[in-house]
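Friendly challenge for the regulars: who can give me the structure tokens for this chain first? No prize, just bragging rights.
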Amino acid sequence: MLKILSRIIGSHRAEIKDAKRIYKKIMLQSRKPDFYAENLCADSTDGRMEILCLHLSTVMYVLRNHGETGAKLSQSIYDVMIDDFDIALREEGLSDTGVARRIKPLAKMFFTRAKQYADAFDGSENSQNAVSTLTNNYVCNSEGNSEGNSEGNTDVFVNYITNFQTSLNTLSLGQIALAEIDFPKFH
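First reply, four minutes later:
Bragging rights claimed.
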């Protein structure tokens, strides 16, 4: 708890400030209604988590190309995300033990998705197919999407995230840190 408070109130570390800026921009993008339109991702807690994971995984993957400083920023983004989850769960009225029980599976799910997306991005030739499979399994098939998944919807997400990654790859670490991120058009 003290660790969280120090991050929220008194942290003057540059990477935490940058991580908060990036996380806020990613969070706002992830909440856009376009992702949750008919037959796309379910507009549910699980669906929103999948869209957030998709965006954050892509940013963290690109940060790997920026050495130790990129790794520190990536870790700081993860820390800010976990702090945000902690605050949200406490606002729901959960106790310390309830929060701990709920955050562990969320963190595990995020790490699993981030690793799977990173592996897919690393696959160059089969990258499109791997990202397509992941998107189809998680994003387009998230709980509450009554229409299930369709190949056309998966393609929309794959094109979007591929364009997002391409756009991020053109940015310097400083531009990413300042959240000078442009998101591609969705659809």
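The chain has one domain: 15-177. Confidence is low (pLDDT under 50) at residues 144-149. Your move, everyone else.
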